[in-house]
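Notes, Module 5: Reading structure tokens.

Key idea: the token line is not a picture. It is a compressed description, and you learn to read it the same way you learned to read a sequence, by spotting repeated patterns. We will look at two proteins. The first is printed below with its tokens.
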Amino acid sequence: MAKPATPNLLQGTLDLLILHALQRGEMHGYAVAQAIHLSSGEVLKVEEGSLYPALYRLELDGAIKSRWGVSDNNRRARYYALTRRGRKLAGEQHETWDRLSAAVHRALAH
């Protein structure tokens, strides 16, 4: 049986997912993508072409900070962590998402 297609993410949803993943602690980009994939029940897959521009945008916005380090497989990697602003933004975006998803659910129920 064919596996269902991976749904496209709404604008801004990727930022929320990244901020949520980083609430668990500092991680490199690949680990962020894996955290999103695994926490979604392996439904959502974040491609590099979407992930790294989003990380860059969040860093420019002051929501996350980064540093260079060495990964578990001994490779140079950029590690990302939430800032105070990022923690606040994650909470705000989560509340917005809850309202939006409830509204969509109500609309689809009628």
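Here is the second protein, with the sequence above and the tokens below, as before.
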Amino acid sequence: MPAASLIPVDEYLRTTYRPDCDYIDGHVIGRNAGERPHGRLQVILGALFLTHFDTWKLVPLLAQRVQVSGSRYRVPDICVVRASDPADNIVMVPPLLCIEILSSEDRFSRLQERVNDFAGMGVANIWVLDPWERTAYYASTRGFTQPDDGTLRVNGTPIAIKLADIFAQLDKLSTPAAR
């Protein structure tokens, strides 16, 4: 079987993928997405950050390309940038927060590489949420830890997201009437 051809970064940047893909050292890598629990949680969290825009001065970006190094681009489920950050088409300044929402096929071992890329870029806050297990984690190069009190926070900011509230909204959207 022939080896996959490397794709130049400029070709990746001018190509539209649906859903968007990561670019890792010349390889276009698909992301797990497209399942309702994943999409619903993405909307809930994005709306929460958008609702608090005036006080938090943060902008949520869904499926936004982030250049984590010269030859690597990641597409987090939600990228939260400061309103004062450059408004470039591709995020090149470390976001305040990157959020990954697990799809049914995601595995923590594969997710760790994504987390390492975000951390290597300088992203200090990385969250992982699992809509199936109703759990959430702080992620770092050292692994994954759950918040002790059921609330995800970003130190030095007023951001405090109660998981019970988020997952209650997810449950509400998952009822037959919401379909």
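Summary for the second protein:
- Residues 28 and 159 are 34 Å apart (CA to CA).
- Residues 36-51 form the longest helix (16 residues).
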